Automatic annotation (TrEMBL):
It comes from the Bacteria. This is Uncharacterized protein. It comes from Candidatus Accumulibacter meliphilus.
Amino acid sequence: MTTLSLTDAERTVFARVANADAPPGAIVRDFDVLLDYLSTDGIPVSPKTSEFAIARLPELNALLTHPVPIGLHRGKQTSYPNVAGLHLLLRFSRLGKVDRFGTTPRMILNTEMAAKWQLLNPTERYFSLLDRWWSF
């Protein structure tokens, strides 16, 4: 078995990335924006597919780091690939859950999982999302 050895410069880079205030890439920032958006009162979802309500898609898209320009008046969730990907991550990370007890089903924040999410540093959040996506 080979032992991995790092130089001091490589150790410095690893430490700097692990302790960075900003997450690597835009996915963690966008996911946090979605979680903040959910934390207010949730998002109405489709009763059959649990996709976000069509009326909320342009607003969600505009909040993201790189909004996708859509020329549709009533685009479906698949028309917004960045929002659709975040929706899948939200469901498979179990940070979001569908509340079907009201008149309209809503995607709400799973407070127990959100508390665990807040304990992670940005790099851990990134790799947690990567793991969820890879598992999917």
